[in-house]
Amino acid sequence: MRSAIVLGAGMVGVGTALHLQQRGWSVVLVDRGEPGRETSHGNAGIIQGEAVEPYAMPRDGATLLAIATGRSNDVHYEARALHRHLGPLLRYWWHSAPARHAAASRAYATLIAQAVPEHAALIEAAGATDLVRQGGFRVLHRTPQDMERAAAEAERLRARYGVRAQVLSPAALAAAEPALKQTGAGAIQWQDAWSVRDPGGLVAAYAALFRQRGGTVRRGEAVSLGPTARGWGIRTADGPVEAEAAVVALGPWAPDLLRRFGYRIPMLRKRGYHRHWRGPRTLALPLLDAANGYVMAPMAQGLRITTGAELASPEAAESPVQLARAEAAARDLVDLGVPGEHAPWSGTRPCMPDMLPVIGAAPRHPGLWLHFGHGHQGFTLGPATGRLLAETMSGEVPFVPAAPFRPGRR
Ligand SMILES: Cc1cc2nc3c(=O)[nH]c(=O)nc-3n(C[C@H](O)[C@H](O)[C@H](O)COP(=O)(O)OP(=O)(O)OC[C@H]3O[C@@H](n4cnc5c(N)ncnc54)[C@H](O)[C@@H]3O)c2cc1C
After folding, report:
1. I want to staple 297 with a disulfide (CB 3.0 to 4.6 A). Which of 24, 62, 160, 286 is the partner?
2. How far is the CA of 252 from the centre of ligand 1 (A)?
């Protein structure tokens, strides 16, 4: 029987472990904490079946000026940390040129098309249907001009990729979401998405399914991973584990481990924050307030407000300015009630400059496999890219072309 250590038990690592197991591998899933307690817990919980085009870096003067002058709440940066991001940022800029972004989108769309079906199979098998809502999520627009642009964009994505969206008038939005105090110029409802009321809970349910099917979950530190006579070994709380293959699925922490093996990974770390609010009413589906760059997602813990991207150095102190602005804007829309926590949560989106996840064999280490860099959509993509990697490792014909995601691409 073939054997693998999967390092990192977020949505990406757990998705990989399940797909390797389905192909007959003996798998040990190793994490320093419990499954699904980091980035895969703190996100907005949207399984984004509509996200066929990855987020490009804005290149138009007006948007860049709004970011530079702090007028946009989508992106915030810490000026002192900018030099730390300069290399990946310049590459992100280069890859965001229209023709390159179009090529990245063609590859990305093949994965996104598999995201909901792959989750659906696992949700069913894990008995986790109570955590999941179908019906999509909504994007609120505040002015008729913004609404018109958004409807045109939705039509473009429908024509090119078959993504389904419904345009909701302010009255239709009010009927769908009675908790809203105002409904602006209406909303776009992306119908192909699903959403989850406890993202970390869904990862934990998938990890429980992995255990139930005979998989092993262990506590261990990534730094103890190293080559052995048999392949790869790691120390865990229950003793050493060896396997012929090891998969690095450490999300935003992957570059730290891989530096020890001589790989410099140009990851762009986009920090995000969340806090829950407990008011008298909640929303039926997640709502993105486009003008203010945040999402309100109804969760088991309350209404979770999540922010856009902050470019900060990994060790920088938290500066939740975007969250404060988001909460102020959200108060115009719903009665937020009281905060669920005093201090906000923060985590990091592991973004690659070419906007595509890294999936495949490490260039210089036989038996070492890389699986990270899912950026804004890792919660969506973990099971689909887990399948792609497991198929590649098993020598099967992959269900979507794997070449665009290979490690070492330029
Ligand atoms: C605010 C916000 C909102 C988001 N909203 C969405 C959304 O709605 N939909 C969506 O698809 N995506 C969303 N994302 C992105 C998504 O959350 C990430 O892409 C995804 O969670 C990455 O998953 P992962 O498994 O790669 O990483 P993680 O979930 O971070 O898992 C990595 C694991 O590695 C472990 N680890 C780290 N270091 C070590 C070590 N040294 N030793 C052992 N173990 C270690 C950690 O404990 C962790 O369990 C959002 C992100 C943020 C920040």
Report:
1. 286
2. 7
Residues 21-32: pLDDT tens digits? 999 999 999 999
The answer to whether the CB of 45 is under 6 A from ligand 1 is: yes
Q: How much of the chain, in percent, has pLDDT values that exceed 70?
A: 98
377 CB near ligand 1 (under 6 Å):
yes
Q: What are the residues whose beta carbons fall under 8 Å from the beta carbon of 44, sequence distance 6 or more?
A: 195, 274, 286, 295, 297, 304, 306
- Return the residue matching tokens 């817990």: 41
**Between 283 and 314, residue with greater pLDDT:** 283
Say if domain 1-56+96-131+196-265+352-410 classifies as CATH 3.40.50.300: no
**What is the average pLDDT across 153-174?**
98
- Any residues with CB less than 8 A from the CB of 371 and at least 6 apart, and which? 12, 13, 16, 247, 248, 249, 357, 358, 359, 385, 386, 389
Question: Beta strands 245-248 and 268-278: pairing type?
Answer: unpaired
CA 259, 261, 263, 265 dihedral sign is negative
Contact by Cβ (8 Å): 207, 36: yes
Q: 242, 233 in Cβ contact below 8 A?
A: yes
pLDDT surpasses 90 at 38 = yes
Is 236's C-beta closer than 6 angstroms to any atom of ligand 1? no
On whether the CB atoms of residues 381 and 374 are closer than 8 A, the answer is yes
Determine the Cα–Cα distance for residues 375 and 136; give it in Å rounded to an integer. 20
- The separation between CA 312 and the C-alpha centre of its own chain, rounded to angstroms, equals 18
